[in-house]
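Dear support,

Our group has been running a series of protein-ligand predictions, and this particular one with FE2/S2 (inorganic) cluster is the one our PI (initials K.S.) wants archived with full inputs and outputs. We had some confusion internally about which version of the output was final, so please treat the block below as the authoritative record. The input we submitted was:
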Amino acid sequence: MSLPKIVAKQPVILELEAGIYWWCKCGKSQNSAFCDGSHRGTEFAPTQFELAEKQKVALCQCKYTKNPPFCDGTHSQL
Ligand code: FES
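Confirmed final output from the archive:
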């Protein structure tokens, strides 16, 4: 089993509009925390999430959160 690439050991804080998003799980995306298709050919697949309204979010960049796509503090143990 492959391990995801750790992009950063801290979340990225963003204010996002309501809508559907795809969080990068492999860590290879060049588009911050969002999927850009770089997982193709790997065993990873992005995680879809939906925001019902505009809100500030802390998206995991270490890729080891147990509550994807949101940071749960796991990065502090890596
Ligand atoms: S960045 Fe915080 S758990 Fe991944």
